[in-house]
Structure of P27 family phage terminase small subunit:
Amino acid sequence: MTKSNGTAPKHLRKESGEFFKHVMRDFDLDEHHVILLTKACEALDRIEEARAAIKTHGLTYTDRFGTPRARTEVAIERDNRLAVARLFRELGLDLAADGKTAPPALPANR
């Protein structure tokens, strides 16, 4: 659990910890929002770890049948990007100037 004084959890990477401190300094978050912010920062760390593995090993590998397959890290990066976007939205960190948090409606849905 994080301290209420805005100290970042020690297990976060430097960049995520700085982001955590920035948000804690600029926003008045309830305890449950601090938990969501921590989870978002952890997901940001998973994204960076997956990107490093992809940079080292590439996007694909060849299975035993000679078929190219996406590496597991590709799914990890994708899933954590979605998690970060959803957590930021839940926290209200993506508020536009008009106050809307939902994406704009598609023309076909009007």
In short: Helices lie at 14-26, 31-57, 72-91. The longest helix spans residues 31-57. Strands lie at 60-62, 68-70. The first strand starts at residue 60 and ends at 62.
